[in-house]
Amino acid sequence: MAPATDQELRHGAGEKGQRVTPATARKAVFHPTETDPSYTSEDLVRIFGTTHRQLQWWDERDVIMPHLEAHRRVYSAHLATLVGVVQRLRATLSLQTIRTFLPRIERGIARNAGRFVILSLPKTLHFINEPELIVAALAEFSAPSVVVDLRQITDALKEQR
User: Fold this and answer.
1) Could you tell me which residues come within 8 angstroms of residue 151 by beta carbon, excluding any fewer than 6 positions away?
2) Residue 44 near residue 55, CB atoms below 8 Å
3) Using one digit for the tens of pLDDT, what is the confidence trace for 38-90?
4) How far is CA 135 from CA 76, 105, 116, 128, 130, in A?
5) How far apart, in whole angstroms, are the C-alpha atoms of residue 63 and residue 60?
6) What is the DSSP letter of 18?
7) CA terminus-to-terminus distance, the chain
8) Taking Cα atoms as reference points, which of 69, 16, 85, 76 lies closest to residue 43?
9) What's the structural domain count of the chain?
10) Mind giving me the DSSP string for 51-99?
11) Do the beta carbons of residue 75 and residue 38 sit within 8 Å?
């Protein structure tokens, strides 16, 4: 068996040495049920103002990989939140910069680490719960910083439901 490619390694090893590609990984990650909220590309375009092409491009570049269902992208609530964060960060940051922070942002969202995400270049990332602490945190950074309110994103997703 040939060595695994970088892309296959990013998505983990399959059962019994089976290779896991982006397409098979997305099937294993999220299977929407009636109780779990899920969002289509159309929903996210309407909620966050992103474009279909942008969502497709992020999927093709393994930035945000939704579940595919009959050739349609279906996003879990976690991935939909991530789309909202990336969309807001894209207003000021390059996708290359965002990609360096993406694994840490994903873990923070999954752990419900805080209400606000503060990203300060070149490599500082904080999750903060209290709005009053944002000013103090920003004062510590001499580099440009971006603040994203996760509650605004999750509220927008809830309104869609």
Assistant:
1) 115
2) yes
3) 999 999 999 999 999 999 999 998 889 999 888 899 999 999 999 999 999 88
4) 32, 20, 12, 11, 10
5) 8
6) -
7) 46
8) 76
9) 1
10) -HHHHHHHHHTTSS-PEEETTEEEEEHHHHHHHHHHHHHTTTS-HHHHH
11) yes
d(CA 93, CA 64): 16
Q: Could you tell me whether strands 72-76 and 38-40 are parallel, antiparallel, or unpaired per DSSP bridges?
A: antiparallel
The torsion of the CA quartet 122, 125, 126, 127, rounded to 10 degrees, works out to 140
Contact (CB, 8 A) for 83 and 90 = no
Phi, psi of 141 (to 5 degrees): -95, 130
Q: Answer yes or no: is 18 within a domain.
A: no
**Domain coverage including residue 79:** 31-160
Q: Does the residue 79 lie in any domain?
A: yes
pLDDT in tens, 132-155: 888 888 888 777 888 898 989 999
Q: What is the pTM of this model?
A: 0.74
C-alpha closest to that of 121 among 85, 89, 145, 104: 145
**Residue 153, in any domain of the structure:** yes
Decide if 6 is inside a domain: no
| pLDDT averaged over every residue in the chain | 78
Judged by DSSP in three states, 25 sits in helix
CATH number at residue 122: 1.10.1660.10
The residue whose two tokens read 């999927």 is 59
